[in-house]
Design a protein that fits this description.
Blueprint: H1 2-30, H2 35-51, H3 53-57, H4 79-89, E1 101-103, E2 109-112, H5 121-128, H6 135-155, H7 166-193, E3 200-206, E4 211-214, E5 219-228, E6 232-237, E7 240-241, E8 251-256, E9 259-264, E10 273-281, E11 284-295, E12 321-325, E13 331-334, E14 339-348, E15 357-362, E16 365-366, E17 373-378, E18 381-386, E19 395-403, E20 406-417, E21 431-436, E22 442-448, E23 460-467, E24 473-475, E25 485-489, E26 496-505, E27 508-509, E28 519-520, H8 524-531, E29 558-565, E30 569-575, E31 586-593, E32 600-601, E33 612-616, E34 623-632, E35 635-636, E36 646-647, E37 662-667, E38 670-674, E39 684-693, E40 700-701, E41 711-714, E42 722-731, E43 734-735, E44 745-746, E45 758-765, E46 770-775, E47 787-796, E48 799-800, E49 804-805, E50 815-818, E51 826-835, E52 838-839, E53 849-850, E54 863-868, E55 875-880, E56 892-899, E57 908-909, E58 919-922, E59 930-939, E60 942-943, E61 950-954, E62 965-968, E63 974-979, E64 989-993, E65 996-997, E66 1004-1009, E67 1012-1017, E68 1026-1032, E69 1039-1044, H9 1046-1060, E70 1066-1074, E71 1080-1086, ...
Parallel strand pairs: 4-11, 13-20, 95-102
Antiparallel strand pairs: 1-2, 3-5, 5-9, 6-7, 6-10, 8-9, 10-11, 12-14, 14-18, 15-16, 15-19, 17-18, 19-20, 21-22, 22-25, 23-24, 23-26, 26-27, 26-28, 29-30, 30-33, 31-32, 31-34, 34-35, 34-36, 37-38, 38-41, 39-40, 39-42, 42-43, 42-44, 45-46, 46-50, 47-48, 47-49, 47-51, 51-52, 51-53, 54-55, 55-58, ...
Helix pairs in contact: 1-7, 2-6
Length: 1501
């Protein structure tokens, strides 16, 4: 019963729906004339619909169409029944895909639903709202349909199920049928009458195709869509709208006519998804899905990278703004170094724990973290670190900061210079080594040629390989290859390899390149099967049957082609056979020379596993054909079809030379170079740009990685140098010829339009006038600001008018008085700056300012603050007076300063008293520190508000800055000079006085030369006092000043006078010196003179000339002027003068010789002449004198000269000649021009007067030495000095009697005074303490020392003056050791004296006849009396009848043996002992028998 009632209810609803449609059609017809007004209204309603989309999505029942005046009928039922009804009404199963078409209960399509809830609000609005120009195309049906959806979206919020009677349902069903018929008739009529009858829903004529790609590739999905009005196209990834603007680095969308594209760049595993394209217009929607599968290699990371969402629930509805600060600039690195790039990223508003997505790119490709690339986000700092730089790292680096509200980017170029080569002239390393076409035993290695070939062209390249896990590199090619591409064969299947490349030229081999990525030698089909993704929506299951061809010979390969052909190798490729069984197949390659039918197998020994093969050792210029055979365990297949004939040779030609480059200025260290691309070039790798400084032949690379574009910015150049540029192209075949060099270009910053002024503010206001001030732009564009333009507009509430110009002629100040305004009207102002490059953009508008009269009494703020002469520790601040003086004129200014990093409390006054001028030099600044300044004006009413802040200004001297210097030329002209070596065209020198334009131009004459300006004082006087400054226009920061004070002016006038009336300068004033023979030389030296300089010689105002008495000389090479006189006479007393004349310059120098000075000089001259005469014969160079040797021998010696063999040498002592036979003659000797008398050890017998005479025919000379009295004492004092200085330090020695202090000398003389001191007091001689000399030892004996003998002991030896002292401290450890040793020796001496000993009486040997008696007595000593014993043969004897042993009186020990026998022979000893020792007196007893002896002799005979 319930189901029947529901069916009837559905029919009634259909009738009611038809009725509503008819009512809507009538409403549309009535409002056809007001189409545009309704359109605007519906756009507003559409926005309301979008705002409620989340609520609509929460409804759990299907919506159906109702009108705004629907009849609210209700059917009461239980909750359980309602759920069953709703369930039965659902036309789709639970797991069915969501439909995007709206249907009624009868499953009839009544509209469409857009899944806009999955995207951003703004994006959906852009899809739903038509553009203004498309309104006319869409027609009124679109407007009505959208209006209908908006209304029913509101009504669908409330869905009620009401119970109706059967009669009511039948009636409503009949009404709906009638309404439906009427509606169809009305629709057909409207199609004929309505111009929108041509509209039709979207239709996809070409649908996007599913694709499978490898990671890193770029794919493009495209479709063709027809429909009218023109459909809107949207792309979705897994039903999420793709925002190409937010991720332009990943996605690109294009729409050309009816063709629509989605390009996915640099695919990675996360791009594996279902991509849906949706086409939408007013007639309907159509969508189509394509699957993209991205595969990755087995050795790569398989873990999915879960990217953090750009936003989360707490940030929903927040619009983020990003600001990038502290941006990294163009960077330069060197191979092997580590380089970091970073920026500070400010995201506003701040959301806790929110981290924006930061993606780094190189040349437009995103970077992945690896061993070479590290990314970091710390705080607000994004950092990219490049470890161990290589040339592959060179390029344009971009940092993209992505938030849910959009993205912001910043880019800068990174240059990587080559590392220093180990051998001069070798090429640098190749770069970008990659592997392609990897198979079981084959891979193609490619690379890029380096920028620099070295001292000679590159001859070729070597390719090395290394198996992963080992460190052994094997060279793959025996001869260098010219192409930057090489096929490597002989790999082992299943193993991993890396490759590197080196370049070769005549100088040697380069460093190796960076190693390639790891590759695995395996079949591509196996790799695809092993590494394919397992996404559930793209999975594929293959059903195969067991091959019944096992053991069957495989079929022949197909499609054998030549993929590469060079003069070094040829590469073949083919397709495996279809029939090959379970076991793998291998291949044999055969070749045939053109013109013959003989096929030769190339790889006879080892078949290859890969369907690729490289053939080497082919003859260049010959033609070959090739074919392939398969083989397995069953046999070898038939040969494949042969290839066409291939001629061995380079197919790829070198690129042609690029066009002549054009260089244009960019910055102070960079130049933009552009050129025409090489024509007809194949497989272009890129271009290398080189530069050379004009005047040199050295070419340096601008880039170390080739670029493909034909425009490049060359950075790292030196400012103000002139360079030329050239370009060369490169492909796999090699380098092109370098292009023609560009025109020379000076490296200098290009002039640009200035930045906009800042700080537009009101300075003064009246009833109908306003004074506006502003600050200069921070960037002048490289040229001086020539003026400003002011614009204004009126403001009424929130409505502003258009901008109007105020001045047609540029203003030269930073303030402007605007007149003829209306009182109480609100205005806004903006300012634009102008330089020679153009006019800047308008500044930020000022605040809304009302024109009304001010009532201030203090002056307004000064304006036009700027700085000049910025140095490390000082700068000059200048300003203009305020536009409003207040009630009284301005009478002074105050300048404040603070460091830029300090808060407002850091402001300090530069000076205490008011400054009357409008400039001030601020000193005492810290270098490399930024400062800000402000100025306050003062009048009688007080101090006004401060000016706008100037700065920050960095206290740093610009490199190459020079100061003004003052020059006085030879004519006495005073001038100021300022130089600027960096000056270029368009720059000028501008001089000012006291930082104001020079009003009286008659005071100075300005002469400007290249890079130099000279300001000449026409008539220097006190009127010229002040500060002169010079500024170079269009050269920001080039300025200097010079303060001319009264003292400085007087000094300059004195110098000018000296230059006008010059004086010849002398290095030395006139001087006099005596020469040989007593000759007198007068001389001087001139410092500066010309060849025309003349000298006048004057004596007592009388000019003298050269003759017998005077000799003159002027050496113009050295400037020395000389005058000689052979002798001085009485008449020569007076003044000698040299007068010099050199053009208009004069000089005079004089020497006065009078009085005692003259007489002393005359006497000395005569003596020198007599000395000269004496030295003409034998003479003494050094007269007779004495010396004492280190051995204390006294020598008399003299040095003689001009001796001959027959010159007589006679010695005298006390006027008595020393003859050859005299004993003293043995002490005379002549050695090396010296005469020596060796007295030896001197005594009083040697006292006397010694003389030496030299005689021959040329003359005689004598020398005398008096060694009596004072002379003798002098000799002795020297001897005493030698003896005293030779003394050693005092030594401490202990004996059995006491302690001895001693010092050794080389020699001791009896007259030498020696004094011993104890505690600085002289020691008096006594029995216990004695001093003396033994040989060369000076000693002090202390017998039986006691504690009183401790202390400091000094020996004082007379040395002829004060004496030489040696000190020893006899105390502490020294005393203890010495005293202990004394006691030990004393005890030993006592023991030695009292020791028991045999002192005599015993013979050494006793011979006695047998039968005789032996009596021996020995003398014994010892205290106490010793014990006595006798031994025989070391055995003690005991007294008995035979041996009588006695010891009498403690002194005599005797032994008696009566009737000795032979047995008594032996060694005997008298042994004595007491407590001090033991001693034995030994002797030998020999007993003999005469008869026995005779018998023995007879027997011997």
């Amino acid at each position: 019963m319930m189901s029947e009632s529901l069916q009837v209810s559905q029919k009634e609803q259909q009738l009611q729906l038809q009725h509503h449609k008819e009512q809507h059609q009538k409403a549309l017809h009535r409002h056809h004339q007001s189409h545009r007004e309704q359109h605007q209204q519906h756009r507003h309603e559409s926005s309301s619909f979008l705002s409620t989309k989340s609520s609509i999505n929460k409804q759990s029942v299907s919506t159906y169409k109702t009108t705004t005046r629907r009849v609210k009928t209700s059917v009461k039922t239980e909750k359980k029944g309602l759920e069953q009804v709703v369930k039965s009404l659902s036309p789709l199963p639970k797991r069915a895909k969501r439909t995007y078409l709206a249907t009624d209960l009868d499953k009839e399509v009544i509209g469409y639903v857009i899944p806009i809830f999955r995207a951003n609000h703004e994006e959906v609005r852009g899809l739903m709202e038509a553009r203004e120009e498309d309104v006319t195309e869409e027609g009124i049906n679109y407007v009505a349909m959208r209006n209908l959806f908006v209304r029913e979206s509101r009504e669908a919020m409330e869905v009620r199920v009401e119970k109706k009677s059967r009669t009511t349902r039948i009636r409503e069903s009949a009404e709906r049928v009638e309404l439906n018929r009427t509606l169809d008739e009305w629709t057909e009529f409207r199609k004929k009458m309505n111009p929108d009858s041509l509209t039709h829903p979207p239709e996809m004529t070409t649908k996007p195709r599913s694709q499978t790609v490898w990671e890193g590739q770029t794919i493009r999905l495209h479709c063709t869509v027809a429909g009218w009005p023109r459909p809107r196209i949207a792309w979705y990834k897994n039903n999420v709208l793709i925002d190409a603007k937010a991720r332009s680095e990943k996605y690109t969308m294009e729409s050309n006519y009816n063709m629509h594209y989605l390009e996915i760049k640099n695919c990675d595993f996360l791009d594996t998804a279902a991509y849906r394209v949706s086409a939408l217009n007013v007639k309907g929607e159509m969508s189509c899905v394509a699957t993209v599968v991205v595969k990755r290699f087995q050795d790569e990371e398989r873990d999915l990278i879960v990217t953090e969402p750009r936003g989360f629930c707490t940030e929903h509805g927040v619009t983020f703004r990003t600001t990038i600060l502290d941006k990294f600039q163009v960077a330069f690195g060197r191979e092997g170094e580590t380089l970091s790039l970073g920026c500070t990223v400010i995201v506003y508003p701040t959301v806790k724990n929110y981290k924006p997505e930061v993606v780094w790119y190189r040349n437009g490709l995103p970077l992945k973290a690896s061993q070479w690339v590290h990314t970091q986000w710390a705080g607000q700092r994004a950092t990219l670190t490049l470890v161990h730089l290589n040339k592959e790292d060179e390029g344009m680096y971009t940092m993209r900061v992505i938030t849910k509200s959009g993205y912001d980017t910043y880019s800068a170029y990174v240059f990587v210079r080559d590392a220093d080569v180990e051998v001069e002239g070798v090429p640098v390393a190749p770069l970008d080594v990659r592997c392609h076409d990897v198979n079981k035993d084959y891979v193609v290695v490619t690379w890029k040629q380096p920028a620099m070939e070295g001292s000679s062209p590159i001859l070729g390249y070597y390719v090395d390989r290394c198996e992963v896990g080992t460190h052994h590199w094997a060279q793959c090619n025996d001869t260098p290859v010219k192409y930057a591409r090489f096929p490597v064969t002989g790999l082992v299947e299943g193993r991993s390899y890396v490759f590197r490349v080196t370049a070769l030229n005549k100088a040697g081999v380069s460093r190796a390149s960076r190693i390639s990525d790891v590759v695995i030698a395996m079949d591509p089909f196996d790799r695809a099967r092993l590494l394919g993704p397992s996404a559930p929506w793209t999975g594929m299951i293959k059903f195969t049957e067991e091959d019944h061809t096992a053991g069957v010979v495989p079929g022949e390969p197909t499609d054998v082609v030549v993929t590469e052909a060079t003069k070094s190798y040829v590469v073949l490729a083919w397709k495996p056979p279809v029939q090959r069984g379970h076991e793998g197949v291998m291949y044999y390659i055969e070749k045939c020379v053109s013109g013959s039918d003989m096929w030769q197998r190339v790889n006879t020994s080892m078949p290859v596993k890969s369907p690729r093969f490289a053939l080497f050792d082919l003859s260049e210029g010959k033609s070959y054909s090739f074919r392939v055979r398969c083989c397995n365990s069953a046999g070898v297949s038939e040969a494949s079809l042969a290839t066409s004939e291939i001629t061995v040779g380079d197919v790829l030609d070198l690129p042609s030379s690029p066009g002549t480059p054009v260089a244009t200025r960019n910055t102070s260290t960079s130049v933009v170079v552009s050129w025409e691309a090489s024509k007809d070039v194949k497989n272009l790798v890129g271009y290398y740009i080189e530069y050379s400084v004009v005047g040199t032949d050295v070419w340096m690379p601008c880039n170390n990685r080739p670029v493909k574009q034909t425009r490049f910015v060359c950075h790292g150049l030196t400012c103000e140098t002139t360079c030329v540029f050239r370009v060369k192209a490169v492909n796999a075949a090699g380098y092109s010829l370098s292009s023609t060099a560009s025109q020379p270009e000076l490296v200098r910053a290009a002039i640009s339009v200035p930045a906009m002024p800042t700080g537009v503010r009101l300075l003064e206001a009246d009833k109908d006038t306003m004074v506006i001030g502003w600050s200069e732009p921070a960037n002048t564009g490289g040229a001086d600001i020539r003026g400003y333009f002011v614009d204004y507009r009126t403001v009424k509430g929130q409505v502003v008018s258009k901008w109007h110009e105020l001045n047609l002629q540029a203003l030269t100040t930073t303030s402007y008085k605007v007149e003829n305004l209306k009182e109480n009207v609100v205005y806004q102002f903006q300012v634009r700056a102008m330089n020679m490059a153009g006019v800047s953009d308008g500044s930020v508008p000022s605040a809304a300012l009302e024109c009304q009269e001010w009532t201030l009494t203090v002056p307004g703020p000064p304006v036009g603050l700027h700085v000049l002469e910025v140095r490390d520790s000082s700068m000059v601040v200048l300003w203009e007076p305020p536009s409003f003086d207040g009630r009284s004129p301005v009478n002074g200014y105050y300048l404040d300063v603070k460091e830029a990093s300090v808060g407002e409390e850091g402001w300090t006054a530069v000076h205490e008293k008011t400054n009357k001028s409008r400039f001030m030099k601020v000193s005492g600044l810290q270098a490399a520190t930024s400062y800000v300044f402000r100025v306050r004006a003062q009048n009688l009413a007080g101090v006004g508000n401060p000016s706008a802040v100037l700065g920050p200004i960095l206290a740093e001297s610009r490199p190459g800055t020079k100061e003004i210097y003052v020059d006085v030329d030879d004519d006495g002209v005073i001038s100021m000079v300022f130089e600027c070596s960096e000056m270029s065209e368009g720059c000028e020198f501008v001089w000012s006085k006291n930082y104001e334009a020079i009003k009286d131009t008659s005071r100075l004459t300005i002469i400007n030369e290249k890079g130099r300006s000279r300001a000449i004082f026409n008539n220097p006087s006190l009127e010229d006092l002040g500060i002169f400054s010079c500024v170079v226009t269009n050269m920001e920061g080039i300025s200097s000043s010079y303060e001319l004070t009264e003292e400085g002016l007087m000094r300059l006038l004195d110098i000018s006078h000296d230059h006008k009336f010059p004086v010849i300068p002398f290095k030395n004033e006139m001087a006099m010196e005596l020469q040989e023979k007593g000759r007198v030389r007068f001389w001087t030296q001139v410092e500066k003179f010309t060849k025309d300089c003349q000298v006048e010689y004057v004596f007592n105002d009388i000019i003298i000339h050269q003759g017998e008495k005077y000799t003159m000389n002027f050496d113009k090479t050295t400037g020395i002027i000389e005058m000689f006189m052979d002798s001085l006479e009485v008449t020569d007393e007076g003044t000698f003068t040299f007068n010099l004349v050199d053009g208009k310059a004069k000089g005079t120098t004089s020497l006065v010789l009078i009085g005692e000075e003259f007489r002393a000089l005359q006497k000395k001259s005569q003596f020198e002449r007599a000395e000269w005469i004496r030295k003409q014969g034998p003479h003494f160079i050094e007269y007779l004198d004495f010396t004492v040797t280190p051995q204390c021998d006294v020598l008399l010696q003299c040095t003689v000269g001009n001796m001959k063999a027959d010159t007589q040498i006679i010695w005298y002592k006390d006027s008595i000649p020393i003859g050859e036979r005299d004993e003293a003659a043995k002490k005379l000797e002549k050695k090396d021009g010296k005469l020596i008398f060796n007295i030896g050890k001197i005594s009083k017998n040697d006292v006397g007067i010694y003389e030496v005479y030299l005689r021959d025919e040329r003359g005689q000379d004598k020398s005398r030495f008096d060694m009596t009295d004072a002379g003798y004492q002098t000799v002795m004092n020297e001897l005493f000095r030698m003896i005293a200085n030779s003394s050693s330090q005092i030594k401490v020695t202990s004996t059995e009697h006491g302690i001895i202090l001693s010092s050794d000398v080389t020699y001791y003389h009896e007259e030498q005074r020696v004094t011993w001191l104890h505690k600085d007091a002289k020691i008096a001689a006594s029995e216990r303490v004695k001093a003396g000399v033994t040989g060369e030892q000076l000693w002090l004996k202390i017998n039986e020392p006691t504690e009183k003998d401790k202390g400091k002991y000094t020996i004082d030896l007379f040395d002829g003056k004060d004496g030489v002292k040696r000190v020893v401290e006899l105390s502490g450890k020294v005393w203890e050791e010495a005293f202990e040793e004394f006691q030990r020796l004393k005890a030993a001496a006592i023991a030695e004296r009292n020791r028991a000993r045999v002192i005599g009486g015993l013979p050494d040997v006793v011979a006695i006849q047998e039968g005789k008696s032996l009596n021996l007595t020995g003398n014994v000593w010892g205290e106490p009396t010793p014990e006595v014993s006798w031994t025989k043969n070391e055995r003690e004897l005991v007294a008995d009848e035979r041996y009588v042993l006695k010891f009498e009186h403690g002194k005599y020990a005797s032994i008696a043996i009566d009737a000795v026998t032979r047995t008594d022979s032996g060694k005997y000893a008298l042994v004595v002992r007491n407590k001090y020792g033991t001693e034995a007196g030994q002797f030998t007893v020999s007993v003999y028998n005469p008869e026995d002896d005779e018998k023995e002799e007879e027997e011997k005979k």
